[in-house]
Amino acid sequence: MKHRLVRVSLGTLVAITSCMAPTSWAQDQKAGHPDLSGMWNGGGGLRGALEDNGNIIDNFPSRRCAPNQRGCRDQTNQTVDGEFTGRMDPNRPLYRPEFWDKVQDLDRNTNTVDPIFKCQPYGIPRMGPPTKIVQTANEVIFLYAAAGAGTQPNDFRIIPTDGREHDPVRAQDVSYYGDSVGRWEGDTLVIDSVGFNDITWLERGGYFHTDNMHVIEKLRREGNTLTYQVTVDDPGVLLQPWVMTPRKLSLNTNPKAYIREGDPCRDVDYENMVSKIRH
After folding, report:
1. Which residues of the chain fall short of a pLDDT of 70?
2. How far apart are CA 185 and CA 225, in angstroms?
3. What is the distance between the alpha carbons of residues 238 and 96, in angstroms, rounded to a whole number?
4. SS3 for 63?
5. Model-level pTM greater than 0.70?
6. What is the rounded CA–CA span in Å between residue 125 and residue 228?
7. Residue 241 CA to its chain's centroid (Å)
8. DSSP 77-125
9. Burial of 138 by CB count in 10 Å (0-12 exposed, 13-18 middle, 19+ buried)?
């Protein structure tokens, strides 16, 4: 079955949601939920998080072997930082032994197989936190800025928070962002997503997933800091759910802050690549 993504002008969506925000937020205040609305630096295409002092933390996952995982050995002293064997973050998804060869093969051939070079959405969780959030009484709208590589379009998600369950049809469909529903647990917004395709990666490094992936995102605001946490459950290929390294984002209080128009998507000439491994 083929699925088409319906594209709407991001500028148009921002204009519409900006008009909606003041009244809707007044309604949401009555419900007692914290306001997540705003432009959050460090989201979207940035692949890191902001420390309290404003420094960028590199959150690229690396790899490690599961206990007694046959045919797997840790390699951390590599010169190619873009390859998973050269990354130092100890927090990595742990794959079942029978899938480790596939992960290594995908990673070593990153330049020809990484989905981000094919003019399509990064998907969840690779897209990371949104660049801008617009919160209303019954939904949150996530606006994503295009990644700098010119391969990721500006995109958006509209997530209901009115207590509904997953749509029985869309939850069985397959898409880049899945079918998402939100709920509040105290001051934390919890977003539950299912119904993904298996085209995207969890992160660079060959970290693939299946169409049975289940993603939980948690967002919590404390002052002008937003903490974004993701848990990925895909028992068909992962030994255990992967709780990704949290990202801390700072509120951009500049009233002139905006999401610029994304660059045109650039097709990659695979035939003339110097190396299969991305540096």
Report:
1. 1-31, 42-89, 146-152, 266-279
2. 18
3. 6
4. coil
5. yes
6. 11
7. 16
8. --S-TTSGGG---S----B-GGGHHHHHHHHHTHHHH-GGGGSS---TT
9. middle
